[in-house]
Amino acid sequence: MTATQPTLPATGAHVSIWADLLGVDLQQRFVDAGGIRTRVLEAGDGPALMMVHGTGGHLEAYARNVRVLSESFHVVLYDMIGHGYTDKPDRPYTIEVMSDHLVATLDALGIEHAHLSGESIGGWVAAWTAAHRADRVDRLVLNTPGNITNKPQVMAAVRDSSLKAVREASPETVRARVEWLFHDTSLVTDELVALRLAIYTQPGFERAMTNIVAVQNWEYREPYVWSPSWCGQITAPTLLLWTDHDPTGGVDEAELLREWIPDAALEVIEGAGHWPQWEKPDEFHRAHLRFLNGGI
């Protein structure tokens, strides 16, 4: 008897996270990344593509992208240090700490080098890694990397809304935090809110969130601020993937990075906020497939 393949939902028609992953040959597990028990999800073969989520996020931020991108790449999603279901040592998670954990996760998986695609602070971490560990990075996608110019009001909004969603954890506070990321808030499903609420109500997560948002305070941010001095060290081909409704910064900030990062290309996805991978997955996939396969 021939097995019948499941009928897969159209990429643009979001039903649930599990529907997005329907039919995908994937593995979720924990690895020891430099002494940090780290949750990872892997799917597909080919060149490694590690995707790095944002502040207070988790690997499900890319649930809508695994099926398409794993047809061409060995997709690696992971919860950054202190995030999701990864260990939460009690220290501020600076950009360097998160970059070291990214490299340790590659080591734990036996991956010598990979494409990196980072969203929000994940883009900052990916860029820092590309500048300081060029041997580990093939191509680099900076997806709405967020507040390049260190606007105090954006730093406060990220810090305060993230802490509130944990200290006053409820479907309402978590929904408010997630909706801030979206242009089309109708895409913020009850399932997504419930998933993040489960993460935010883990024992000890308030302390973890304090460490997560440390870089929204100048003391921990200043040593790593975006600047031409270190951005100019990036040698990996780089795509700046922006949107027209990003609450953390406009396309003018992308233009700064295009000046600072050698030969960086810029693409703007319309009709999306801070999570184009969720709001506009088809455009997100096309940009990645074109760029990571050698286009611009």
Give a description of the structure:
The protein is an alpha/beta fold and 296 residues long. It has a domain of 199 residues: Alpha/Beta hydrolase fold, catalytic domain (Rossmann fold). Helix content is 38%, strand content 17%. It contains 13 helices and 8 strands. The protein has an 8-stranded mixed β-sheet, with helices on both faces. A hairpin with a 2-residue loop joins strand 1 and strand 2. The longest helix is centred in the middle third of the chain and has 16 residues. The radius of gyration is 18 Å and the shape is globular. The protein starts with 16 loop residues before the first helix and ends with a helix. 49% of the residues are buried.
Strand order of the largest sheet: 1-2-4-3-5-6-7-8
Q: If helices are DSSP runs of H or I spanning 4 or more residues, what is the number of helices?
A: 13
Determine the N-to-C terminus distance: 45 Å
Specify the overall morphology. globular
CATH class of the domain at 18-150 and 227-292: Alpha Beta
Give the biggest beta sheet: 8 strands, mixed
* Low-pLDDT residue intervals, each spanning 5 or more residues: 1-11
CATH architecture of the domain at 18-150 and 227-292: 3-Layer(aba) Sandwich
CATH fold descriptor of the domain at 18-150 and 227-292: Rossmann fold
What percent of residues adopt helix (DSSP H or I)?
25-40%
Tell me the name of the CATH homologous superfamily of the domain at 18-150 and 227-292.
Alpha/Beta hydrolase fold, catalytic domain
How many strand units?
A: 8
The Cα radius of gyration reads: 18 Å
Structural class: alpha/beta
pLDDT averaged over residues? 95
